Amino acid sequence: MNQVTFNIEGMHCEACARTIRALLETEPGVKSVDVSFDPGTARILFDPNAANEARLKSRIEKPGYRVVDRAERP
Amino acid sequence: MNQVTFNIEGMHCEACARTIRALLETEPGVKSVDVSFDPGTARILFDPNAANEARLKSRIEKPGYRVVDRAERP
Fold first, then answer.
1. Domain A2-71: which CATH class?
2. Alpha helices, DSSP H only, in B1-74?
3. What is the ipTM of this complex?
4. Domain ranges of chain A
5. Which of B11, B26, B63, B64 is CA-nearest to residue B42?
6. What is the rounded average pLDDT of the residues B3-27?
7. Looking at the complex, does the CB of residue B62 fall below 8 Å from at least one CB of chain A?
8. A contacts of B35 (beta carbons < 8 Å)
9. Nearest CB to A63: which of B10, B15, B65?
10. Is the pLDDT of residue B73 over 80?
């Protein structure tokens, strides 16, 4: 299992954070997601055989948020 | 093809609306989605053989929004 934490720009409220979480949970291979509005982060635990960081980043950015940094541990 | 418009409570900003749209677009059978922050509505065009209203409503409500009404035309 892999873990990544993305720093995200563009979240305006807690509802944004909860909706990004729901969006990431629909991605195959994602095991758990924790999204925080302040600071703007998404910590994702995923199976690297079924998901990858590029696709997760793309899913976050589709509604207009920006992933500006990443780390493998929180 | 079916069309439904949901009235939604709990959207706080335009980013919420864009993220709900992305969330609905991941649902199988959904052909097009238009979500408006003000008024709070989601108009969804979907294939009734692959999607249904109950599942669409559930997807909107998972992050904490509430579907308070529906109409078959906008």
1. alpha beta
2. 14-25, 53-61
3. 0.91
4. 2-71
5. B11
6. 96
7. yes
8. none
9. B15
10. no
